[in-house]
Write a structure and sequence with these properties.
- About 5% of the residues lie in helices and about 60% in strands.
- The radius of gyration is 16 Å and the shape is elongated.
- The protein has a domain at about 45-150: Sandwich (Immunoglobulin-like), CATH 2.60.40.
- Strands 1-2-3-4-5-6 form a 6-stranded antiparallel β-sheet, with no helix packed on it. The chain has a 3-stranded antiparallel β-sheet with strand order 7-8-9, with no helix packed on it.
- With about 160 residues, it is mostly beta strands.
- Residues about 1-20 have low confidence and may be disordered.
Amino acid sequence: MKKFFISMSLLIVLALPSTAFADNQEIVITEAEDGCYYETIIEEIPAEYNILNPNAKAATNTKTGRKTTYYKNAADDVLWYVRVTGTFTYGNGSSKCTSATVSAESKNKTWKIASKSSSKSGSKAKATATAKQYLNGAPVGSVTKTVTLKCSSTGKLS
C-alpha cells in the first residue's frame, strides 16, 4: 500500500460542511486493493461546536475530534464513509477516551452500509463499518474499514 500525506487547508475547508474545523486537520490517502482508495481526515472539534459534549468548553484538558475515512473510486466520487467521533481527557502523562460514536453512510446507490459499531479503550476511539456493493440487486462484494482516533497525553489527535 502506498500512503501519501497531504496538508492543504483550503482543500479541506471546501470538503467540509463547516469551516470551523479547518485549523486542525490532516488528510491521509491510502490505496485500496480494488482500484479505489481511502481518504482519511482527522479534525479537532472546537469546544464551542461540540454538541456531543456541551460541557467540554468548561473543561481545560478535554478534547473532541473526529476521524473520517471516505471510500472513493478512481473518479474521486465518495462511495461511502465511516466516521468515529471521540472525546478525550488528557494531561499528566496520560489520556483517556470518555466517549466514542460511529456514523457511516452510503453516498452511491450501489453501496449499502451493512453494519457499524463503535468502541472505546484507553486513549482510543474506534469505529468499524462494513459496506456491501450490489449490482442488479445481488451482492457482489463487501469492504470493512476500521477507523481509530487516538489522543496523546498532550492532546494531539492522530
